[in-house]
Amino acid sequence: MERRACRHWFSILISLLGSGAILATGPGAQAQEVIPKLQALCPLGYVDTFNGKCSTLGVVSYTVAPTNGEACQSGWMNIGGGYCRRK
């Protein structure tokens, strides 16, 4: 029973940390060369670094924001991978 409670709290902790990573890339963020991988594929212009992140490898930086399952705002374009990029 004690192990089950420990796993439950560990799951909550991981969820909160994941939410913080997504919030850190919200609208108004600076240009990002490395972003958390939100879906199976990285967004257009980013390469999968196989550690749960996507990177431009330092070639360029884009201002991106997660779509959160909604359409991109005006002035932004959908680049896949769960992200919108400023036009």
Descriptive notes:
This protein is of the alpha+beta class and 87 residues long. It has one domain (2-86). The chain is 25% helix and 23% strand. The protein has one helix at residues 2-23; strands at 34-36, 47-48, 53-55, 64-66, 76-80, 83-86. The strands form two sheets. It has a three-stranded antiparallel β-sheet, with no helix packed on it. Strands 4-6-5 form a three-stranded antiparallel β-sheet, with no helix packed on it. It is globular and about 30 Å long. The model is unreliable at 16-27 (pLDDT under 50).
Shape: globular
> End-to-end span in angstroms?
52 Å
Fraction of residues in helix: 25-40%
Number of strands: 6
Strand coverage percent: 15-25%
Structural class: alpha+beta
Radius of gyration: 15 Å
Q: Mean pLDDT, rounded to whole units?
A: 79
- The structural domain count equals 1
Across the major sheet, the strand order is 1-3-2
Main beta-sheet annotation: 3 strands, antiparallel
Low-confidence region ranges: 16-27
Order of helices and strands: HEEEEEE
List the total number of helices. Answer: 1
